[in-house]
Amino acid sequence: MSGLIDRIQDRTATSDEQLRVLDVEGEETDDVLDALATDTRRAVYRALFEQPRTASEIADRIDTSVQNVHYHVSNLEDAGLVEAIDSRYSEKGNEMTVYGPASDPLVIVGNREMRPRVQRSLTDVVGGIGLLGVAALFVQWGAERIARPAIDDASAIPASPNATLGEPGSLAWVVFDVVEPGVLFFFACLAVASVVALALDW
């Protein structure tokens, strides 16, 4: 299964993050902007968007001390930007907190009256992409089950893990070995949805 499909599956299955929409004049927005005012704090925040991490892992990632990380994480928690999402044990048996983003996506809008509308729209988009990712996984799984017997039948010896379907340059080769069906399905559906959305706006 392709790397992109695996990342979609992992993100859909494990993420507890919630959409957060702020208006530019709100007090919450001031807290968020203040929390992200320093370079180190932004680096901590970016590191957690890459993947959930413990304080020591963040320190290694951004090349700073664990004590400094704890200080900045505390400020980000106060602003509602990060949260403790799990815990794990170190090799020495010490319990460590795992941190991750509290909101994804985080959107700031300039018009307070637009905030509810933007939040509803983005909620629909995020939910739709999640469902599309799950559907792409099923397409990929089904295509691999269909393709595998064809590969096995075409080979006089047991099929190798790197066996391909179709001659290089053929449509089957492009779909199954270059692009992969799940990825093709995912982006094709996004393209169709974009065209429909543009048509409705006219």
From TrEMBL:
Residues annotated as transmembrane: 122-143, 183-200
Coiled-coil stretches noted in the UniProt entry, renumbered to this chain: none
Keywords: DNA-binding, Membrane, Transcription, Transcription regulation, Transmembrane, Transmembrane helix
An example molecular function term from Gene Ontology annotations: DNA binding
Alphabetical list of Gene3D superfamilies matching this protein: Winged helix-like DNA-binding domain superfamily/Winged helix DNA-binding domain
Domain of life: Archaea
Pfam families reported for this sequence: HTH_20 (PF12840), HVO_1552_C (PF24267)
Domain HTH arsR-type: 31-115
SMART domains linked to this entry: HTH_ARSR
InterPro entries for this protein: ArsR-like_HTH, HTH_ArsR_DNA-bd_dom, HTH_MetalResp_TranReg, HVO_1552_C, WH-like_DNA-bd_sf, WH_DNA-bd_sf
Record's protein name: ArsR/SmtB family transcription factor
Organism in which the protein naturally occurs: Halosimplex aquaticum
